[in-house]
Amino acid sequence: MIKRNKTFENKHILYFVVSPIGNLKDISLRAIEILKTADVIACEDTRNTLKLLTHFDILNKHLISLHNHNEKSVSNKIINMILEGNVVCYLSDAGYPIISDPGKILCEMAISNNISVTTIGGTNAAINALVCSNLPSEHFYFYGFLDSHQSKRKKQLESLKEMDSTIIFYEAPHRIKATILDIKEIFNDNRRCTIARELTKIHEEYIYFELNDVDNIDFDTIKGEIVLLVEGNNKQDIVSDEILINEINELLQNKKYSKKDIALQIAKKYNVSKNYIYQLILNINS
Ligand code: SAM
Questions:
Q1: How remote is the CA of residue 103 from the centroid of ligand 1, in Å?
Q2: In what order do the strands lie in the sheet with 13-17?
Q3: Any residues with Cβ below 6 Å from ligand 1, and which?
Q4: For residue 237, is pLDDT > 70?
Q5: Atom of ligand 1 nearest to the CA of 169
Q6: Ligand 1 atom closest to residue 97's alpha carbon, by position in its atom list
C-alpha cells in the first residue's frame, strides 16, 4: 500500500517540536510560533515543558503528559483531539522527540489515521557532537543508549565491532567509564574517540582521546549529559594493500578457490571487509 500525504494540505497535522538540549536560545522561531498557536501541547514531562513555555511567554496552554509508560493510551487520546480539529504539538524534554525519546507510537498512530506529521527542527545532541568530534562524518551510525547490563551491552558492542562508520552513543555519566572499558575490550583496537558533554551549556566540553589512553582519563570530572563517539573500524588502512594483493595472488595460483572463497578467507584473516578484498581481486584480474 502506498500512502502519500502533502503535509500542509491536510487539515489534520501533528507537529513534532524540537526543544533545546540546554541553551534555550536554540529554540526555533517556527517552534515558538506553533507552540503559541497550539490548542494542546503534549509533552514528556509537563513541569519541564511548563518552564520552557513560561520562558517564552507562552501561557495558559492545555498540557498533556505522554511518556514511555503511558504512550499508547495517551496517543489514542491525542489522535482523537487532532481529528476533532485541535492543533496539537508534541515535544520531549530535550532535542528531537522519538530520537532516544518517546513519540514513536504517536507518530505511527497519526499516520495510520491519515494525520500528517511534521517536524519543527532544532538541536540534536548526536549531530552537535558529531560536528565537533574530529571523527569521520561522511557516514555515521547513531546507536543511542547501550544496554545498562554489562552482558547485554557487550553483545551489542560485538554487533558493532566491524562497523566502518563513526558510531554515536548516548551515555549516562555513571556508566561512561564502564562503557568505554567494554568498547576497548570488545573492539580490541586503538580507536579514536570523543566525549562531548553538556552541549550548548556553559560547561560544554569535548574530550578527544584514543582507547589506549583510557587509564589517564579522570572520569570523576566527567559529569552531566554525554555523547560518546567512536571511530569506525578502519582496519583496511592498517593492513597494506600490498600484503592483501600478495595473499590474493598466492590463493589465485591455487586454482581450487573461487574469487568469493578467497575474498572470504582473507577478509576473515585480516578482519577487513570481504567486498573490499573482492574488489582488489577484480582489479588484479582486469
Ligand atoms: N532527543 C534527544 C536528542 O535529540 O538529542 C536525546 C534524548 S535522550 C533521552 C538524552 C541523552 O541525550 C542524554 O543522556 C545524553 O546522552 C544526550 N544529550 C542530551 N542533551 C545533551 C547535551 N546537552 N549534551 C550532551 N549530551 C546530551
A1: 15
A2: 62-65, 40-43, 88-91, 13-17, 116-120
A3: 21-22, 92, 94-96, 99-101, 124-126, 170-172, 196-201, 225-227
A4: no
A5: 16
A6: 1
Helix (H, G, I), strand (E, B) or coil at 235: helix
Pocket test for ligand 1, best of 26, 44, 91, 100 (most atoms within 8 A of CB): 100
- Span from the CA of 94 to the centroid of ligand 1 (angstroms): 7
Q: Which amino acid is at 132?
A: C
Cell output for 268: 576473515
What gap in Å lies between CA 136 and CA 232, rounded to an integer?
8
Residue 176, amino acid: I
Strands in the chain per DSSP E:
13-17, 40-43, 62-65, 88-91, 116-120, 140-145, 166-171, 192-197, 205-210, 226-230
Question: Which residue among 227, 228, 229 is best mutated to probe the pocket of ligand 1, counting the most ligand atoms within 8 A of its Cβ?
Answer: 227
What CA–CA distance (Å, rounded) separates 62 from 42?
Answer: 8
Q: Is the pLDDT of residue 254 over 70?
A: yes
Pocket test for ligand 1, best of 48, 167, 168, 170 (most atoms within 8 A of CB): 170
- Cα 254 to Cα 252: distance, rounded to the nearest angstrom: 5
Contacts of 240 (CB under 8 A, 6+ apart): none
| DSSP for 102-169, written as a single string | S-HHHHHHHHHTT-EEEEE----HHHHHHHTS-S--SSEEEEEEPPSSHHHHHHHHHHHTT--SEEEE
Whether the CA torsion 82, 79, 4, 103 is positive or negative: it is: positive
- pLDDT, tens digit, for every residue of 40-67? 999 999 999 999 999 999 999 999 999 9
